Predict the 3D structure of the following.
Amino acid sequence: MFIDSHCHLDAAEFVDPTGMAAGAAAAGVDWIVIPAVARANFDAVATLSRALPNGVYALGIHPVCVPQAAVDDLARLRERVGAAIGDPRFVGVGEIGLDFFIPELTQPALRDKQEHFYVEQLKIARDFGLPVILHVRRSQDTVLKHLRRHRVSGGIAHAFNGSAQQAQAFIDLGFVLGFGGAMTFTRALKIRRLAATLPDAALALETDAPDISPAWLHPASNSPAQLPRIAAVLAELRGQPLADIARQTSHNVARVLPRLGNLMMA
């Protein structure tokens, strides 16, 4: 069993998301976590997840979408999270975080708005006792600073690309680290070194489909059906059987997303 812990299956690139999910299931992907990115797709990720046998979802406002977001989107998110608590397919708050890679987003006003939206979404997760799915791009230390101030019940640091010290800081705060297509490129030395050496309990698998395609697909769009092959790269880097990687990473995701864990035991 594999869990794709981060897949934007509602993206416009997927003309047949139901067929895409079925193909992933046939490849051994039992669960796909579909995070929202903006108020505009809260309904889409929830509806799609409920329509799929292997779909679950999170609700949040992505840092790249923050410039277009209205302040009352945060109030609407809080309302939607409260309403979704009764939905077993709802697993957490995400995708949220900070992006200091895109130059325009580092301008003072937008950086401040990003941090405001990130902190307010951490508060929503904290108030509802929910984990978070984090976007962390060239922003590890600032993301960690706010996590220490506004403690949540762990979650996933998606597409992790920080240092070993930063990785340990996330782990200490109850997070697992997502590894996907970037790890499959031989030139990605830092990511591959982390993937090879982090504790078993710190690892999660993801595709971020349609983005971050693995080496054998790039530059074509990614898909959740690629997850087992991505997992095979992780198994090779760690010198472990693929079955062990599948079992451990699935256990890790179920641990940090306990509502998904409950579904898996149902």
Notes: Residues 2-265 form a domain with the TIM Barrel fold (CATH 3.20.20.140). The mean pLDDT is 97. The longest helix spans residues 108-128.
